[in-house]
TrEMBL record:
GO terms for molecular function: guanyl-nucleotide exchange factor activity; small GTPase binding. Gene3D superfamilies: Mog1/PsbP, alpha/beta/alpha sandwich. InterPro entries: Mog1 (IPR007681), Mog1/PsbP_a/b/a-sand (IPR016123). It comes from Viridothelium virens. Keywords: Protein transport, Transport. SUPFAM superfamilies: Mog1p/PsbP-like. This is Mog1p/PsbP-like protein. Belongs to the MOG1 family. GO terms for cellular component: nucleus. GO terms for biological process: protein import into nucleus. It holds the Pfam family Mog1. PANTHER family: RAN GUANINE NUCLEOTIDE RELEASE FACTOR.
């Protein structure tokens, strides 16, 4: 079951699972960010509205997505973060003129040999680049994996085994891609 949430005062809407609650009801959240967390778990969905990274700083939009990931993980050399997949994505309700990229990473890199006792976070990142608004919108679904919360052998991203927590998060991300809509473009300052 899902519900439509109003982000940034209703300027953006998206469908989130019913169990997700607005973190700003619990603590202060920066104005450029919306944070929701699963009341029944540790998974969170974060939407950041950021100044668009200049094209001359990066060779392509995928590099921009990776730079945003580096900022999120605070791992600027990607020494402890593994990017498993990266590629184009699409929002159903946003014009196709804006580049959209998606990537899946883990931080730190899980050891699959003794994975059941390891702590790491899976990150599903979507980057929407709004050139005309000089804005990058970064949406992350963050999935902490605590020791003992999953069975050894059920997770092997290299071979497509994501485990139940990440499979659920992937479904959340797909629902967001299908429902994310900008209702008020005046939210963005040129």
């Amino acid at each position: 079951m899902s519900k439509t949430v109003e982000l940034f005062g209703g300027a953006i809407t998206a469908d989130y699972p019913n169990t997700f609650i607005d973190v700003s009801d619990l603590r202060q959240v920066p104005d450029h960010q919306e944070v929701y967390i699963d009341a029944n778990g540790l998974t969170s969905i974060i939407v950041d509205i950021l100044e668009r990274q200049p094209s001359e700083m990066c060779s392509d939009d995928e590099e921009v997505a990776i730079n945003h990931l580096k900022d999120i993980t605070n791992d600027h050399d990607l020494m402890h973060t593994k990017i498993w997949t990266a590629g184009a994505a699409q929002f159903s309700k946003i014009p196709n003129t804006s580049p959209v990229l998606s990537l899946f990473a883990t931080e730190p890199v899980p050891s699959l040999q003794n994975s059941r006792h390891q702590k790491y976070t899976s990150i599903l990142l979507v980057l929407l680049r709004l050139e005309e608004k000089q804005t990058d919108i970064v949406i992350t679904v963050n999935v902490p994996h605590e020791p003992g919360s999953w069975e050894s052998g059920t997770i092997d991203p290299e071979n497509g085994r994501l485990g139940s927590l990440l499979e659920a998060a992937s479904a959340y991300q797909e629902k967001i891609l299908a429902s994310f809509e900008i209702k008020d473009w005046n939210l963005f300052v040129n």
